[in-house]
Amino acid sequence: MSRIYLEVEQEMAGERLDKFLSLLLPDQSRSYLQKLIKEGLVQVNGQGSKPGARLEASDEIWVELPELIDPEILPEDIPLDILYEDESLLFVNKPKGMVVHPSPGHFSGTLVNAVMYHCKGELSGINGILRPGIVHRIDKDTTGVLVVCKTDQAHRAVAEQLKVHSITRVYRAIVHGVIGDDEGTVDAPIGRHPTDRKRMAVNEKNGKRAVTHYRVLERFGKYTYIECRLETGRTHQIRVHMASIHHPLLGDTVYGPGRDKGRLEGQVLHAMTLGLKHPVTGQYLQVDAPLPAYFQELLEKL
């Protein structure tokens, strides 16, 4: 159990207790903080309180955070579409709907569960028990190629390439609206949304530099088929950037209009190409994932 002390500044006076805590403790969800308040693990001026209690300037708050117990992550015999594999790296074609690594509410059926079974314990341990071998991720409803590192050496080498933005990452997407220019670049910092912590946004004040290069492949009546090349790799980067120029991804109910064509399950986004310098041989290795069937069918309909 760890204790955290907070004091309410004048500009936060009048704020709800649960919202105040979610702003100052961004790693904790608001629902979890509300649970702690109801269980008496949050005290305001030495007394228990309620999530909706309004705070006053100079209020003193103590929060007791229980120690988290890491769940046991088990290997699961889940079929993998393997694009390339050697003793250091595993490239897989992730299907739509699969979560990459375990998280609250998703401790089974993830890509990690599947690769643990396939690799029989031969995965890098740098990212801990929840993300063995995972050096980067793609969203649950994004399909396509993702690399898994089997050794710590490979993990460090790939992580360094990600850090300096030397990895080739090319995506295919369908967006709302007709893009006039044949190609373009969105250079806008991305950070946490100022009021909705579950979303990302173009954030000039607190964001990190993010660059997406896009190229039109085909135009339809109300949509455009594009290729996106990432220069950086921020969370939800393509989704946020295309929405910021008024061309949100088709099927994206978080950053788009909330309507889709043919009851799509999430954004129409596919990680097609991943290229990097092999951590052992030093040779450039590029792996491509074919467009999934739903994507091809959608293109034919459009």
Characterization of the model:
The structure is a single chain. This protein has 302 residues and is of the alpha+beta class. It has 3 domains: 2-65, Roll (Structural Genomics Hypothetical 15.5 Kd Protein In mrcA-pckA Intergenic Region, Chain A); 70-164 and 292-302, Pseudouridine synthase; 167-267, 2-Layer Sandwich (Pseudouridine synthase), CATH 3.30.2350.10. The protein is built from 6 helices and 15 strands. It has helices spanning 17-24, 30-38, 111-119, 152-163, 237-244, 293-301, and strands at 2-7, 42-44, 47-48, 60-65, 82-85, 89-94, 143-149, 168-176, 183-187, 190-192, 200-202, 211-219, 223-230, 269-277, 284-288. The strands form 3 sheets. Strands 5, 6, 7, 8, 9, 12, 13, 14 and 15 form a 9-stranded mixed β-sheet that branches. The chain starts with a strand and ends with a helix.
Using brief descriptors, characterize the structure shown:
nine-stranded mixed sheet, alpha+beta, Pseudouridine synthase, 302 residues, Structural Genomics Hypothetical 15.5 Kd Protein In mrcA-pckA Intergenic Region, Chain A, four-stranded antiparallel sheet, 6 helices
Task: Please outline what is shown here.
The protein is an alpha+beta fold and 302 residues long. Helix content is 18%, strand content 28%. It has three domains: 2-65, Structural Genomics Hypothetical 15.5 Kd Protein In mrcA-pckA Intergenic Region, Chain A; 70-164 and 292-302, Pseudouridine synthase (2-Layer Sandwich); 167-267, Pseudouridine synthase (2-Layer Sandwich), CATH 3.30.2350.
